[in-house]
Every structure is written in structure tokens, then in C-alpha cells.
Specification:
Shape: globular
Largest sheet: 3 strands, antiparallel
Structural class: alpha+beta
Number of strands: 3
Radius of gyration: 17 Å
Distance between the termini: 58 Å
Order of helices and strands: HEEEH
């Protein structure tokens, strides 16, 4: 006999999946805005040289150019990259208003 899943559990999973997809779309749009700022202020920076690492639940590390390091909570890799790039821009003195 296979796994039996209640209808409520199935609906909850379906709602969670829809929320995750929406969150992914939103954080990717945030990341797009951040990378646009990076490219406009620092055209020589290679975005692909930055990377993120998840190490405990929702805790992430961002490793960026010039040995820059950010760590904190994020909803996923896109969100961590966004937060990392924004912290890097702030460190570089770019006004983020």
C-alpha cells in the first residue's frame, strides 16, 4: 500500500508550492534590480565571481568581489545574492535611496 496523504495535507503542500514560486519570482526581480545597480556603478565587476552558501536553515553567506563577505537570513539563494549585493553596494558608498 502506498503513502496515504490527506486532502488537507495535499492542499497545504499545493499552497506552499505556489507561495515558494511567487517568492522565487519576487526575489529574482529584486536580484535583477541589485545587479543592474552593480553593473551601472561598477561595470568591471564580474557578477559570476560572487557566490552564496547556505549553512544552517535559512542562514546564508555571500562571498563577493574584493573578498567581501555578508551573512544573514534569506529566503533562498536569490534572496541571499540580493542581500549580499546590496550590502556590498552599501560598503562601496553607493546611495541606495
Amino acid at each position: 500500500m502506498g503513502n496515504v496523504v490527506s486532502l488537507d495535507a495535499h492542499r497545504n503542500r499545493k499552497d506552499a508550492r505556489a507561495w515558494n514560486e511567487l517568492n522565487c519570482i519576487f526575489t529574482r526581480s529584486l536580484l535583477r534590480e541589485a545587479t543592474t545597480l552593480v553593473r551601472s556603478h561598477f561595470p568591471d565587476v564580474k557578477l559570476r565571481d560572487a557566490w552564496v552558501y547556505r549553512f544552517n536553515g535559512d542562514h546564508w553567506e555571500f562571498h563577493g568581489p574584493d573578498d567581501f563577505y555578508w551573512h544573514g537570513d534569506a529566503d533562498g539563494a536569490y534572496h541571499a545574492r540580493y542581500k549580499g549585493w546590496m550590502a556590498w553596494l552599501e560598503r562601496k558608498g553607493v546611495a541606495l535611496d
